[in-house]
């Protein structure tokens, strides 16, 4: 039986592999996918969605005395407790989901653009993040006009640069491990 080509040599058919070899092959394919542009984009979107949901839930829990609906005269504190809780949990869920969608979308766009820029430039340096930040910021704010796109570009690029410089700095303290005392 003819196997498929891989850089490490011809591979066996799935039925000819042991369970350990099948697991190893599956793990290799999973790692390859996660290191690809679609994999990085999906991971950034998923983690952004999770982080945004948590952030939205936290921020919604801080806004506890808001008017109910569009009627500014009725405050939530004037309602019965059970109705207050129902409205608050409903509002928290809406805000959390909205924030999760936004963070996930921004994470996907930024990560996808950065991966594409890195692939086109064939270099891994800070300029990929700066370019991706600029393109993402401009793309997210383009509907508001060219001035907003320019400000969005500058803001996202500056934020991306600051994060990249911090993460790449040699003066940043190393993470603690179990052996440090």
Automatic annotation (TrEMBL):
* Segments traversing the membrane: 42-64
Record-level GO cellular component terms:
TIM22 mitochondrial import inner membrane insertion complex
Has UniProt tagged this entry with the keyword NAD? no
MF terms (GO), sorted A to Z: mitochondrion targeting sequence binding; protein transmembrane transporter activity
Q: Does the keyword Metal-binding apply?
A: no
Note the topology in the membrane.
Answer: Multi-pass membrane protein
Q: What is its main location?
A: mitochondrion
Q: InterPro entries from the xrefs?
A: TIM22 (IPR039175)
Which controlled-vocabulary keywords does the entry list?
A: Membrane, Mitochondrion, Mitochondrion inner membrane, Protein transport, Translocation, Transmembrane, Transmembrane helix, Transport
Protein function: Essential core component of the TIM22 complex, a complex that mediates the import and insertion of multi-pass transmembrane proteins into the mitochondrial inner membrane. In the TIM22 complex, it constitutes the voltage-activated and signal-gated channel. Forms a twin-pore translocase that uses the membrane potential as external driving force in 2 voltage-dependent steps.
In terms of Pfam families, this protein maps to: Tim17 (PF02466)
- Gene of origin? TIM22
Q: Which organism is it from?
A: [Candida] railenensis
Q: Mention one GO biological process in which this protein takes part, according to its record.
A: protein insertion into mitochondrial inner membrane
UniProt name for this protein: Mitochondrial import inner membrane translocase subunit TIM22
Q: Which family does it belong to?
A: Belongs to the Tim17/Tim22/Tim23 family.
Q: Could you describe the subunit structure of this protein?
A: Component of the TIM22 complex.
Chain residue ranges for the region called Disordered: 1-21
The places in or outside the cell where this protein is found are: Mitochondrion inner membrane
